[in-house]
């Protein structure tokens, strides 16, 4: 795909293909242990689900050994981005990552803000336009969508070029320029992108897991929410019934948006997980937005588990039925049958499949409706942790010399006892037991201090909520680290030292 930058005022309407399939997010997190921190602050190497690692290796060429550091970097970048966006205010011009170098860039429209960016551990890029300006110009294009020519299939804010990118099919250059001019977008703010895309709707398809609408069409479950699931708005109107799982559309918005939620009938159990189509599932831990440039994976019943990167947030695309705005634009491939599927970054829900172009043989562009917007629109709560966060019984891990209890939110870690350490006076066997909340993935690490640093000497990192460690060690200072890899809730830790 060749990109051309034309210095003209531009407005454009996007023509796109729908890939329905929403994600639900926003579960109520359990209160964390006092002193809980990020895993990296305790020297915990990132654990990566083997299925995610395999998919990233296949689709992005990321080695399995590098997958953990990539996902950890992305999660930290999201936190830095959110903090800087608030602190920089009007001068903020967006953020993006170069995950191959673990570098985060932040655009600023005022050079004096660069120091704050550097202090946060990112690299500042001084640009001409703020993010608010770019989004306003995109909104001007959205407002002119009814006049958009067929040759203009999509447009979006590209923070990496500090411009509004307008995709144009061959022969549509003059019409695109005219549309941009009528929208009143400044000449220097637009980049035209030559494309062969002809996006189409993917109604008769499945996302994470299939469901049918009215006994005739088929779409995909995006993410489980309390009482049902979310999906794409173009899959069904309010009142339409579904089967496998059975339910009724209680909310639906399309075009403009592309989201819906289905209230499931009794007997259907929402589970906080995504089908990876290799016999396993990814447990959904939350819905923190990943940065532009971040690696993401999509689940769909036609092409299964596919990965790519985020190209933009807030993109607009025009389908035959009308324009949808505020979408996540990606280079993840998809095909008919994948609509409604889940988009996830690590274990964080991102969005549901709306539409796109191309296929999984030659590649393509796919758009996703952000899941947080769906949850907010309908007041829904995301199901996390593979289906539950029931606290373990207080008798779990009984029979140990010492016992510790606490509560962790997904992604947090804590050192026991009470953020401190224990002194082991002689060599012998250290036995540890962890009982975490049902449906979650909690991990256990035994660390030993050497000088001023801590090293992990033994670990229990299965996909279970429960772990056990038996370690033959020498005298020294040790601590026990509990990590809520996915899911939130209470845990019991038992420890016996020589």
TrEMBL record:
Pfam families the record matches: Pro_Al_protease
Signal peptide segment: 1-29
Peptidase S1A alpha-lytic prodomain domain segment(s): 129-187
Record carries keyword Disulfide bond: yes
Record flagged with keyword Cell cycle: no
Gene3D superfamilies: 2.60.120.380, 3.30.300.50, Trypsin-like serine proteases
Protein name per Swiss-Prot or TrEMBL: S1 family peptidase
Organism: Cellulomonas fengjieae
């Amino acid at each position: 795909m060749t990109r051309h930058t034309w210095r003209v005022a531009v407005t454009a309407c996007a023509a796109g293909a729908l890939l329905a399939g929403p994600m639900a997010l926003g579960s109520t997190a359990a209160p964390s242990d006092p002193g809980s921190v990020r895993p990296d602050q305790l020297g915990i190497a990132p654990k990566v689900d083997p299925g995610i690692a395999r998919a990233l290796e296949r689709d992005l060429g990321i080695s399995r050994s590098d997958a953990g550091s990539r996902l950890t970097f992305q999660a930290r970048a999201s936190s830095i981005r959110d903090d800087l966006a608030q602190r920089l205010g009007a001068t903020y011009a967006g953020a993006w990552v170069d995950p191959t170098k673990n570098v985060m860039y932040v655009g600023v429209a005022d050079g004096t803000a660069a120091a704050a960016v550097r202090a946060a551990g990112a690299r500042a890029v001084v640009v001409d336009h703020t993010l608010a300006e770019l989004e306003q110009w995109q909104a001007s294009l959205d407002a002119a969508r009814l006049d958009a020519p067929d040759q203009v299939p999509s447009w979006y804010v590209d923070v990496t070029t500090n411009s509004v990118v307008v995709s144009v099919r061959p022969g549509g250059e003059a019409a695109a320029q005219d549309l941009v001019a009528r929208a009143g977008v400044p000449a220097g703010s637009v980049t035209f992108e030559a494309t062969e895309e002809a996006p189409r709707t993917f109604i008769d398809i499945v996302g994470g897991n299939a469901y049918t609408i009215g006994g005739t069409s088929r779409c995909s479950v995006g993410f489980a929410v309390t009482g049902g699931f979310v999906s794409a708005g173009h899959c069904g109107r309010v009142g339409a019934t579904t089967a496998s799982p059975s339910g009724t559309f209680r909310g639906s918005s399309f075009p403009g948006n592309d989201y819906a939620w289905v209230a499931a009938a009794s007997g259907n159990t929402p589970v906080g997980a995504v089908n990876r189509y290799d016999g396993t599932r990814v447990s959904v831990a939350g819905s923190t937005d990943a940065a532009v440039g971040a690696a993401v994976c999509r689940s769909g019943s036609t092409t299964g588990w596919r990965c790519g990167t985020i190209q933009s947030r807030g993109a607009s695309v025009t389908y035959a039925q009308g324009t949808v705005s505020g979408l996540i634009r990606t280079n993840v491939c998809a095909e008919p049958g994948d609509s409604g599927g889940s988009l996830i970054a690590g274990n964080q829900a991102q969005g549901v499949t709306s539409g796109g172009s191309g296929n999984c043989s030659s590649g393509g562009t796919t758009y996703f409706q952000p899941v947080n917007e769906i949850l907010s629109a309908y007041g829904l709560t995301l199901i996390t942790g593979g289906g539950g966060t029931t606290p373990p019984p207080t008798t779990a891990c009984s029979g140990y010399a010492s016992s510790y209890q606490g509560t962790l939110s997904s992604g947090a870690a804590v050192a026991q006892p009470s953020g401190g350490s224990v002194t082991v006076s002689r060599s012998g066997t250290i036995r540890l037991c962890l009982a975490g909340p049902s449906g979650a993935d909690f991990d256990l690490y035994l660390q030993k201090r050497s000088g001023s640093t801590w090293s992990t000497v033994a670990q229990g990192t299965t996909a279970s909520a429960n772990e056990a460690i038996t370690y033959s060690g020498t005298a020294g200072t040790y601590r026990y680290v509990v990590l809520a890899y996915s899911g939130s809730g209470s845990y019991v830790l038992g420890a016996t030292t020589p």
